[in-house]
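Trying the structure run again after the queue cleared.
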Amino acid sequence: MLPPSGSRPFQFSQADGVQVGKLTGLAAVGFVGAYLLSYVWRQQTSEVLSAEQLGVLATACTFLLSAIFQWLSNTEQA
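Done. Tokens:
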């Protein structure tokens, strides 16, 4: 079923945009952190991480940062 003419099927509020921006920034920082950790690893061991290992590292960094930011926002609200 189509929406009525002139209406927009997806409506986002400004708060949704802020949340998407925060998540995008968090993911970007997680990937940068993973890259820096892989660089240090390569310097210390002369071993290059595979793409799969780098992806796991980036995901772990992102989740860790997410948990830290969530904890900080909860302590600010208290």
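Residues 51-78 form one domain. Worth checking whether this holds up in the mutant runs.
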